[in-house]
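step 3/5: co-fold with 1,3-dihydroxyacetonephosphate
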Amino acid sequence: MSTQDDLQATIRDMVQRGKGILAADESTPTITKRFQAVGIECNEETRRTYRQLLLSTPGIGDYIAGVILFEETLGQKADDGTPLVELARRAGIVPGIKVDKGLAGLANAPGDKVTQGLDGLPERLAGYKAQGARFAKWRAVYAIGPANPTRLAIETNAEVLARYAAICQEAGIVPIVEPEVLIDGDHDIEQCETVTEAVQHEVFHALKRHRVQLEYMLLKPNMVVPGKACAAKAPPEEVAERTVRVMRRTVAAAVPSVNFLSGGLTPQEASAFLNAMNRDYRNLPWLLSFSYARALQEPPMATWQGKAANAGAAQAAFIKRARLNGLAQRGEYQAAMEQG
Ligand code: 13P
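step 4/5: write tokens
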């Protein structure tokens, strides 16, 4: 197959009604933090066992079309020797890989960060592809503060995201482009909307400049929400209205799917907000779906606690969130479904 055929087939397999993406690509320091918060010891074996538990959940492929893995997982095997990548594939889930190398302070822009990892990326992608990865993820972050994000950070991260996306497509790997405006802080929803619009506008300019084929990429943005420490909360209808408005203003219609991150929302908020968009807005040019880490994994991780005896209950907690988010993709979720 040509790289073009690869891109097309991957998009076809990943963009499906009622399905989304599981982000299970936490770096070792991040998953250590998440495990510790619920009392699970973090080592290579517990990480392997936990990720095997997620990928072997019966029926999970009904709601999850793609999984983002961390480099370590790409080389790990299930108890019976099956590679975890193969476990995903058998469930009908496309395996992908986080390829960025984390954040560094952006020089001359105090408070802003730039994402690292472009050096050697073509060579790394060839290796990941040989191991079964068909798509990639790269995350840029933007904190909202009195002077942040600066124009410099908005332009620099857009440029880097676009270079990453172009390199991926050249390798026949579908890029997930993730510009995340952080939820941390006491800013209001209006500020989040203004910053998200500016960030995405710049990202699409850069994608055009770098000749990225918009048909063969996925966007993974934040929803427009008030800061965690903002006193004024926003109902799902307002989040949906503001988020859809920003997407319409900035995201080209050629992009097949927008898969939101959960970014510190509760699992219930993440489902309710996605649902409101799909319920209240029809005939949008893109699928609106999810690519959640915390909002899918918090309940199963807390249920599992690192104990084999809890594996079944953890899988039940996981598929419940996957199913509810699958319904939210269709605009058919209701808060009452949280019971039972
Ligand atoms: P959250 O859904 O927890 O924000 O994680 C998504 C992700 O992959 C961040 O890069």
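step 5/5: annotate
The mean pLDDT is 98.
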